[in-house]
Design a protein that fits this description.
The protein is of the alpha/beta class. The protein has one domain: Cobalamin-binding domain (Rossmann fold, 3-Layer(aba) Sandwich), CATH 3.40.50.280. The chain is built from 5 helices and 5 strands, in the order βαβαβαβαβα. A 5-stranded parallel beta sheet has the order 2-1-3-4-5, sandwiched between helices. α4 links the parallel β4 and β5. α2 crosses α3. The two termini are about 15 Å apart. The protein binds cobalamin. The site of cobalamin (B12) has 26 residues, from α1, β3 and β4.
C-alpha cells in the first residue's frame, strides 16, 4: 500500500506569513499532505510531528535565532527517539547560522528566491530517503513512490 508524504510546516513569526503559505500551497500542489502547525515552539513542533506521524518537518525561521531554536528542536526530537524525522529550514538564515544548523542536523536550508517547484522535488527526495531508513515497526507503511 502506498502512503502519500506528510509534512509538518511550522513557523516562529507572526508577521512574515507569505512564504509559509506560498510554500504550503506549493507542497500541496505537488502531492504532499501538509499539516499546518502555524506558530509553534520547538517542543510543540516535536510533539506535533510525532503525533501526526510526519515524514518531514519544515520550519520557517525569521527572528534571528535559528541556532537556539533548532538546538532545542533536535533535543526534543532526541528525547522522543524521533531524530529520524528530517528537518528543513526556510526564511532569513545568516550564513554562519546555516553552517551551525546543518551541523546540528538540518538537511537543507532555503533562502528567499529559492525556486518553489525545485524545492518541492528536493524535499520529497529527502523525505523518501528518511522513510526508507526507518525501522519497519515505526511506521505502518513501508513503500512509497514520489509523485
Ligand atoms: C513582505 C515583507 C514583510 C511584510 C510581511 C507580510 C506577510 N504577511 O508575510 C511585513 C510588512 C508585515 C513585514 C514586516 C517586517 N519585516 Co519584512 N519583509 C518582507 C519582504 C519584503 C518580502 C518577504 C516575502 O513575503 N517574500 C515572498 C516569499 C514567497 O518568499 P520568502 O518569504 O523569502 O520565502 C522563500 C524562502 O525563505 C523559503 N521559505 C519560506 N517559508 C518557508 C518555510 C519552510 C518550511 C521552508 C522549508 C522554506 C520556506 O521558500 C520561499 C521560496 O522562495 C522581505 C524582504 C525580501 N525580499 O525577502 C522583508 C524582510 C523579511 N523583513 C524584514 C524585517 C526586518 C521586517 C520588520 C522587522 C521591519 C520592521 N522594522 O518593522 C517587520 C516585522 C515586524 C516584527 N515584529 O517582526 C527583514 C528581515 C531581516 C531578518 N530577519 O534578518 C527583511 C529580509 C527585509 C530586509 N532586507 O531587512 N515584512
Amino acid at each position: 500500500m502506498e502512503k502519500s508524504l506528510r509534512f509538518l510546516l511550522s513557523r516562529d513569526d507572526w508577521y512574515h506569513q507569505r512564504g509559509y503559505w506560498v510554500l504550503a500551497n506549493t507542497f500541496r500542489n505537488s502531492g504532499i499532505e501538509v499539516i499546518l502547525g502555524g506558530i509553534q515552539t520547538p517542543g510543540e513542533i516535536a510533539k506535533t510531528a510525532i503525533q501526526e506521524d510526519v515524514d518531514l518537518i519544515g520550519y520557517r525561521i525569521m527572528q534571528g535565532a535559528p541556532g537556539i531554536l533548532l538546538a532545542l528542536l533536535f533535543k526534543k526530537l532526541q528525547a522522543s527517539n524521533a531524530l529520524d524525522i528530517p528537518v528543513i529550514v526556510g526564511g532569513i538564515i545568516p550564513q554562519k547560522d546555516e553552517v551551525y544548523i546543518k551541523e546540528l542536523g538540518v538537511k537543507e536550508v532555503f533562502h528567499p528566491y529559492s525556486a518553489l517547484e525545485k524545492m518541492a522535488e528536493q524535499v520529497k527526495i529527502i523525505a523518501i530517503k528518511a522513510r526508507e531508513k526507518r525501522p519497519d515497526d515505526k511506521y505502518s507503511v513501508k513503500t512509497l513512490t514520489a509523485q
